[in-house]
Amino acid sequence: MPREEPPYYGKNGEPRKYDPSFKGPIYNRGCTDIICCILFIICILGYVAVGILAWSQGDPRKVIYPTDSRGQFCGQTGTPLETKPLLFYFNIMKCASPMVLLEFQCPTTQICVEKCPDKFMTLLKAHTNKEDFKYYKNFCKDGLNDQMSAPDILMSRLCPAMLIPSKPFTRRCFPALGLKGGKITVGNESTFNDGQGNIRNAEDLVAGVKNATVVIEARQVAMKIFEDYTHSWYWILLGLVIALLISLLFIVLLRYLAGIMVWVMIVMVILVIGYGIFHCSMEYVSLKSEPGSNVTLKDLGFQTDFTVYLHIRQTWLAFIIILSIVELIIILLLIFLRNRLLVAIALIKEASRAIGYVMSALFYPLFTFALLAMVIAYWAVTAVFLSTSNQPIYKVFNETACEYSRNTCAPANYSTSIMKSQCPDSQCLFAFYGGETAYHKYLIGLQFYNVFLFFWCANFVTALGQMTLAGAFASYYWAFVKPGDMPAFPIFASLGRSLRYHTGSLAFGSLILSIVQIIRVLLEYIDHKLQGTQNKITKFLLCCLKCCFWCVEKFIKFLNRNAYIMVAIYGKNFCTSARDAFFLLMRNMIRVAVLDKVTDFLLFLGKLLIVGIVGIFAFFFFSGKVKAFENTAPTLNYYWVPILTVMVCSYLIAHGFFSVYAMCVDTLFLCFLEDLERNDGSAERPYLMSESLLKVLKKKNKSEPDK
Predict the structure, then answer these.
(1) What does the pLDDT look like over 303-332, one tens digit per residue?
(2) Is the pTM of this model over 0.85?
(3) How far apart (Å, rounded) are the C-alpha atoms in residues 367 and 490?
(4) Rounded to an integer, what distance in angstroms lies between the CA atom of residue 426 and that of residue 448?
(5) How many Å apart are CA 564 and CA 501, to the nearest integer?
(6) Sign of the alpha-carbon torsion through 564, 565, 568, 572
(7) How far is CA 138 from CA 72, 84, 149, in A?
(8) Under a CB-based contact definition with an 8 Å cutoff, are residues 622 and 235 in contact?
């Protein structure tokens, strides 16, 4: 007899068959992806070792305090320099050398001082007056005595040849430059004595100050932003508490009034974005008569004071265009998806019922937030310690020709070295932090390992949350009698199963995602490095690669999410679960497109609404637009800093709460698809979905009488 061919179900696999013994997540399961679990544990132990090594070698003081020519920290608590927090340059004009931009260090002596000089003075003049010389010694090195002559002091480089009125900026003393009668001045004077008998123009200081500030220019904005945070952190926390309460209120209302709340969210989002368009339009019109408001953003260029952009009409025009496009897209999507909204709302209602039986799921994001905070804190601290674990490097600085110029040197014995004897006027000064040991050679590798493990651990924590929630909500869907057939504590039962049996599967899925993410980081790094030299072909290829890997990352996130649901239900390994989930979704492609994604869109509108409400309140408070808050709001450099912080964090908070709904919807959706394949609505194989879902899908259990 010819062998009977097995039935062919197409390229998307065999549909699920009816199994009378199946009642939700399988309890009799074994460990999955053990090899990946062992690899993950080994990598975590290695990560701890890297952290210990970094903490033993690093010194965060290097990024907090400025460093003098001896490599000492200015203003460090518990040291002789505790009362001297400012860095003073002996001759700021030497900072005009192009080498400053290459080595990030001025070729002049730098010492820590208590305060910056506030008057013009030369050493030759101060040496003749006891009181003046007493003041002058505040800006000299140790080892100076009153018996030394002025020429000896200058030869020994113990004091600067001159003092210039200066002001502290980022803990460094820079000349107090100003503008008077169209001329650059320093201390209200257009000229000064350089201490060597020459009268110099104040303009000569500009180049030195400019190059010196290039090294710390990026810190200028960062310092102002940090200052704003110190003045507004408690108001930011209050805004986040409000966002937390609003998010919780929305979730509770969704639990009891899902249908009404969805329509309220849709209308409110349209109104909030509409108000944004109206406000930006009013600002655009009000700047019409303001002088200088018609300057284009291109002509204005980059400004460290970001508030300047808010006085330009083109900025508000850009806001109007962006908000209008967002508003139009949302309205068009709602029009085209109007027939599918009822099904999506029914799915959200079912998710609300599920959350009603698993109320502890609403608080699970707090556990995820805590774990993510620990991962981020460990990564950030390790990164700081790694970046500051270099040793101080000293180099030879010389004004005249010297064959040893820019060579490394040791300050302890430099005065008796060959380099000093052949270049008598040279100095051995602190240049930067580096190192030549094996540890320092592999430092970039350790930083890369730190970043990669950060991605892996963060993705693992997220995956653990997804699998835990999926297991809890699947136990709700497949329970024939609710809550009788459900575990007493669904969240804890699911969390225990995930950690006990599926740590390897969680590590496997998060590893794949982390590899793609680290490739994206490397592509961004390469793009940044080649920005000035790349040709059009290179730019095009990099752009294509970045786009491709962005799409790959989105696909893997989607596949992982559904794979974790299948692992939580059936207890199989990651690859098998990913395959089963993918084929199940492919067999129901139309339903995936019009149901699951519409529901995600509605939940996204909810997050957008919360961010919009909190953002509007934050804007009126921090910008001082409302008179009632003028005396209450803190004085800030950039009022947009707390506003953006509150909005971004509000989105994360809303995302945390709505992610419970999103995970519930995705889990119920997969269970719903399997329900349609396993059962046919007969008395022997009844559908387990709710009555509302059956009604919307125009299906019914055949045991019910016809109506």
Answers:
(1) 555 666 777 788 888 889 998 998 898 888
(2) no
(3) 16
(4) 39
(5) 13
(6) negative
(7) 17, 10, 17
(8) yes
